[in-house]
Each structure stands twice: as structure tokens, then as C-alpha cells.
Amino acid sequence: MTDQAAQSNRHFATDVVRTLVDAGFEALWAGGCVRDMLLGKTPKDYDVATNATPQEVRKLFGHRRTLAVGASFGVIIVLPPRDSEAEQIEVATFRTEGPYEDGRRPTQVVFATAEEDAQRRDFTINGMFFDPIEDQIRDYVGGQQDLKQKIIRAIGLPAARMEEDKLRLLRAVRFAANLDFTLDPETADAVLRMSSQLSVVSVERIAAEFRRMLANEHRRRALELCDDLKLLDVILPEVRSEPDPHKWSEMLDMLHQLDVDSFEPAMALLLTMLPLEVQPASAIRFPEQKPDDRQDVAEICRRLKLSNEENDRIVWLAGRLSLLQNVEDLTRAQVRRLLAHPDSEALLQMAIAQRTVREEPLEPIEQLIWERAETPLEELSPAPLLTGGDLISLGMQPGPEFKDLLDDLRDMQLEGEIDSREAAVEWVRGR
């Protein structure tokens, strides 16, 4: 987010509060934006809480600038002016909530005061309000103290908060890990006792939290907490079925060393714990292609309902890391095919993490990193010298041998043995 966009968001959030206050309502920033602000971070978005009802909010801002996406729960979206870079803002009426029958949504909502609203929220660090007009914090739950002491604590009875929305079991771990905070013992105990109930949460919501854990620099601690609190048994039972504690500890060390702040390389590295069958020759010869020998990884990605792009990236990364364990055995063509892949940089960082933990030489991978950075893509992966159409024009009959012939020619081109169309034609005619 640019500084201009961040400033626009803050100004718009302040204007929304001011508009409500000028109309005689109480209005405050709420939740994560207050937490981030107190941590010295720039909030990515702002939520506003008010005693105005959804109908009053829409009347005040106008129907054209509002969306009643969650009006039954007291939530209205207020849109920014057309010429603004600001993001839309969620305006929610102070409320208390009835029983949660599906582990996610309350059966009823009752409009309430700011203090009562704070009591329904998940963790103390997320339960604070801020008045941007008076520059004043409203803290009814001890959130400021827990921020200072770096504690993640459920508001009220931890089991009751987790019962309302089972995803909070995982959110407690994410906040503790990503912020490098400590889980309050009573909150941790509730997570452990209720961990199996995470299974009632949709896999999409679980995957969203898991993405944010693995994309963070504290991913090792997140996984340790998930393991200690038995959440990993629900999320990735295949990984936790690994009986070798040394292998698990080694993997955690690798994830800590991984110098990539994105989800897919971390997930791929984690899933390389799963045993790999013998790779088919095609997987070694054509490393730029999606491997078909990691169907176990692909199945996990599908079960978590990851996007097709995430699935493809994770399967490729998990399937190709083993090639770099014996990089000196790769041919020149294989190296160039590998380095031309758009995810090769992430793969090389995975190999660095792996070799660092295993105290293996880094020089072979560092050489590939240098080569990738210094070699233009069109040199790593030049246009093919001949196509299937060219073979037909040379009088060859289409058939299965076409692919083998073109693959062999491509290897020779990447090895530097054939570097012109004329030489390629001569080679084909000599076959």
C-alpha cells in the first residue's frame, strides 16, 4: 500500500466518524485498525462502530454510497468518493449476539452500547475502540495492557469465545505467532481442549488463516503452536502422521530459514515431508513442466480448496526441490529449463533453506541464483528452432515420434550443440 493510499484510508475513516458524530451519533474506529495503530503499524483497512442503526447509516450517507451487505447483523458498507483512493469502510452498529448454532454466525443480534459490543469480540487486543476526533482510546477489555505484555487473551470465558466461532481456535494461534506474542494459558487450554472442533469450519476459512501463517516470517512458531495445540491434526493430518521427530524438527528449521514471504513456497517446503516415490525420467528431463509424481501434494491442495494457481505452484515447487539435492547431476539443458520457470527463484530459496539446515554446501545453489539473475530469459529459454509444422514441411509424417524428435532437438539447443535453424534442419534430415 502506498503512503498516499494509506493517508486516503485514514482521512476517509475519520470523515465517516465525523459525519456520524455531527449527526448526533457515537462513532469510533474498532478492532484490528486500533490494534495496528497502537503497534505502530499502518492499518490496511478501517472498521467503524456506532450506535446508529443500519437504516440511519444508509439515510445519513445515502443509498448510492452504501451497501447493505450485512444489514441483518448491523453492518453497512460505506463507499468512498469516486475521486478518492480510499477503500470502502464497514460501519457496524454496536451489538450483542445470541447463541451461535453453526459455529460461525449468531442466531440473533441485539443493538447495544460500545462497552457491550467490546465484550462480544474475540481477543482483548482486537476489542478496543479509538475516537479519531478526540484522539482517545476506549478500552473496556484490557487490550492496551495485553498489547504491552504481548499476550493473546480471549475476552471473557475463552471456551465461550471459541464456541461462537470455531475459526477463533486458529486465529488465536495466528495472532500469537505473527505478532510474536504469548498465548494466555487459559486461552491456550481452551484451544487445546476444543481443537478437534476446528473440523466444523469450512476448509476455505481454514486455508485463509493458514495462508497468513505460512506467509509470515514467524511461520515456524505458528506450526509449533498448531502442533502443540493439536490443530495440525485437523489441518494437515498427513504431515503429522510422520513418526520421525527429527524430520519434523528439521522441517521447522527449514521453514525458519526460508527467505520468502509468500505462502506457496512455505507450503511446498512443508509438504516435502511427505515421502516421494521414485521420480519418472520425464520429471527429471523436463523440470519446467508440472510434475505428475506429486499427486499426494495435489490432493492436499484440492482438499484445502486452494486456487488452481496455488495448486500448480505448490505441486511444481514440492516436486522439483529434490532435483536440486544433486544439482551437479543435472545437464545444462535441465538447468536452463529449471531456471526459466517463473517460480525458479522461490525454488532456489527453498534449496538454500534446506542446505543451510543440513549444513550442505550452498555454492552450487548460489551459482544458480547468480546465473538466473544475470541471464536474460530469452537466453535461458530461446524460441524453439523447429516446430511440428516444420517437420511436416520437411516431409515427415505426423506421429508419436514427433514429440521425441522435438524434445531431443530442444535439449541439443539448450546444451548449445545446435544453435541455428539450418543446423537443426540438417540434424533432422540426418536422423
UniProtKB/TrEMBL annotation:
Residues 180-239 form the tRNA nucleotidyltransferase/poly(A) polymerase RNA and SrmB- binding domain. InterPro entries: Bact_CCA-adding_enz_type3_sf, CCA-adding_enz_C, NT_sf, PolA_pol_head_dom, PolyA_RNA-bd. It is an enzyme of class 2 (transferase). Pfam families: PolyA_pol, PolyA_pol_RNAbd, tRNA_NucTran2_2. This is tRNA nucleotidyltransferase/poly(A) polymerase. GO terms for biological process: tRNA processing. Its EC number is 2.7.7.19. It comes from Calycomorphotria hydatis.
